[in-house]
Write a structure and sequence with these properties.
It is a single chain. The longest helix is centred in the middle third of the chain and has 35 residues. This protein has a five-stranded parallel sheet, sandwiched between helices. The chain folds into three domains: 154 residues, OB fold (Dihydrolipoamide Acetyltransferase, E2P) (Beta Barrel), CATH 2.40.50.460; 161 residues, inorganic pyrophosphatase (n-terminal core); 100 residues, Diaminopimelate Epimerase, Chain A, domain 1, CATH 3.10.310. It is globular. The protein is an alpha/beta fold and 561 residues long. The termini are close together. Helix 5 packs antiparallel against helix 9, helix 5 packs across helix 13 and helix 13 packs antiparallel against helix 14. Strand 2, helix 5 and strand 3 form a beta-alpha-beta unit.
């Protein structure tokens, strides 16, 4: 039996009499169709992914009001506080806004909250501190839309607040001077999947356009790309253009901090793609906020000193290694807890020793392994902090909304959320939320599924197959790496690799064609092998000792027949 549920997507008929489709390879048409890109004009737009993909920033509610207030602040020489968040999206969003306003000679004070002592979102103590430092206007980035009480107190104290955010707004939104969020009910903005940094960038675009200086912000797309990829926002529509432009900037002329991070992590300068951002650069930036102070990551992005960049990048790389060790140890403990519970529809694991900064990572790994919504909670004497991750079949933020009476603060998306609550209420909340999830997921097969783009034989994978798949890059949620299936493949060799033998390396053969393969986290399924297997996989380039070679990345397998 396979470890996932396999779904082979239906083949698309390509009519050779339709010039609009016959000019593209049939495989490309199939891949695009599987991603919902079917009309000729949409295909052209997707593949071109040019400036026409950008939406008009004035379609956001309150955008004109926000731009007018910022221009007044610039004209009068007011100090503007930029209030961010401690993750890579929040850091890059803060950097984008500070850099943009600095280009207009604006005076700014950046503020990144501390994860352990302040948590996500606006706090009245931090807003008061900004006010005391001379800020008369505060612009939030990647946060604020759920902080109605804090905004009310700050405005009563004489601060003007502009919120830029991409999180799902609650029923009662803050009474700020302006709220820029594509998810607001009255938003006419065509793309609601921008990351926090993308929303901040749109505010700058509107501001600079009103001053006829829009081209000056093109250099900041490197920050937008990093934040968007780190936040796992779908690389579709405007995000796709912003990521591609940002990667061009990173590869052509990386800012000092990113250049040093590339060196520290042994990446190759000039060959940075979305995968390397997601798996190497972003985790290093996030390590600052997870284990120490997110301001360090922000400083790395903003420094113009090569020496400072070198010191900060080395510190971040070291912190990321520490984060990896902590994640492994915490995951082992969390796994034991949820397995002992018998793997109910909602996995909740809580402990005083769970580090707050990595709870979300551990929750993600539980979702990945057991395919259930998962909550990992750090417990303290009076207060506890939960990080939630979910599956496509269950909207976690909608569920938390039903139990908002328990939380002192909460927020997030359908797939990822967080909350803070009194520790004394945790057992009751757990009981009620578990019952709610059990009811909602009744009848749902809690097993991960793989959408398969096409069935092929291994000897059909040469030639233009890989270059054709790369026309769809950058990849991510909503635009996954193309996935193929081959049946009846002969197993020539197999062996385990990695710490704890958790991965597999194989050589497979079909139709005279032999392929090297890797299968990550499938090392404990060796007993399920047979002389011939069916496989689901991606095509990828393995760069071993400077030599590029195509290989198969096996996602799942089962015995043939």
């Amino acid at each position: 039996m396979s470890h996932c549920s396999w779904k082979l997507l239906p083949p698309v008929e390509v009519h050779t009499d339709k010039d609009s489709q016959s000019s593209y390879p049939p495989l490309l048409i199939q891949l695009l169709h599987n991603r919902g890109v079917t009309r000729p004009e949409d295909i052209q737009s997707f593949l071109a992914s040019d400036r026409s993909s950008m939406g008009d920033p004035l379609l956001f509610p309150d955008m004109e009001k926000a731009v007018a207030r910022i221009k007044r602040a610039l004209l009068k020489g007011e100090t503007v506080g930029v209030y961010g968040d401690f993750d890579a999206d929040g850091m890059t969003a803060t950097a984008v806004l500070v850099q943009g306003l600095s280009l207009l000679q604006g005076k700014t004070i950046p503020y990144i909250p501390h994860r352990q002592t302040e948590g996500h979102g606006l706090t009245i103590s931090a807003l008061n501190k900004l006010h005391e430092q001379g800020a008369s206007l505060v612009i939030s980035v990647d946060c604020g839309v759920t902080d109605a009480a804090e905004v009310k107190k700050a405005t009563d104290a004489g601060l003007d607040i502009i919120i830029t955010d991409h999180h799902s707004p609650p029923e009662k939104i803050p009474e700020a001077l302006a709220i820029i969020n594509p998810k607001l009910n009255d938003s006419r903005y065509p793309y609601d999947n921008l990351a926090g940094v993308g929303v901040a960038f749109k505010l700058l675009q509107a501001l600079f356009r009103s001053l006829e200086k829009e081209e000056q912000i093109d250099t900041m797309t490197d920050l937008v790309a990093i934040g968007t990829i780190a936040d796992m926002s779908p690389p579709l529509g405007e995000n796709r253009f912003l990521i591609k432009e940002g990667l061009k900037n990173i590869n052509a002329n990386p800012r000092p901090g990113i250049r040093e991070l590339i060196k520290q992590t042994r990446l190759e300068e000039g060959k940075i793609n979305a995968d390397r951002i997601a798996w190497v650069i972003a985790p290093c930036l996030n390590a600052a906020g997870r284990l120490a102070d997110g301001l360090t990551g922000y400083n790395l992005l903003m420094t113009e000193s090569d020496k400072e960049a070198q010191e900060l990048a080395a510190w971040l790389a070291q912190k990321n290694e520490e984060r990896q060790r902590l994640t492994t140890a915490t995951l082992e403990k969390a796994r034991e807890q949820v397995i002992a519970m018998g793997l109910p529809p909602l996995l909740i694991t809580a402990d005083t020793e769970y580090p707050m900064g990595i709870a979300g990572l551990v929750a993600s790994r539980l979702v990945e392994e057991f395919y259930r919504p998962s909550i990992v909670i750090h417990i303290a004497d009076t207060e506890c902090h939960g990080s939630c991750r979910s599956i496509p079949e269950f909207d976690i933020i909608a569920a938390l909304n039903n139990f908002s009476r328990y939380f002192t603060r909460f927020g997030g998306h359908a797939a990822a959320a967080g909350f803070t609550m009194p520790t004394k209420d945790l057992p009751q909340m757990e009981q009620e939320l578990s019952a709610f999830v059990t009811e909602k997921l009744a009848g749902v097969e809690l097993r991960p599924h793989l959408n398969i783009d096409a069935e092929v034989k291994l000897n059909e994978l040469g030639g233009d197959t890989y270059p054709t798949t790369q026309l769809l890059a950058p990849f991510g949620h909503g635009n996954p790496v193309p996935t193929f299936m081959s049946r009846g493949v002969e197993v020539l060799e197999r062996r385990t690799m990695g710490n704890g033998n958790e991965h597999l390396r194989m050589r497979l053969k079909q139709g005279g064609s032999i392929w090297d393969c890797v299968a990550f986290r499938l090392g404990n399924h060796q007993k399920e092998f047979a002389p011939r297997i069916d496989i689901v996989y991606n095509l990828e380039v393995d760069n071993w000792r400077g030599k590029n070679q195509l290989r198969l990345n096996i996602l799942d397998f089962k015995r043939s027949g």
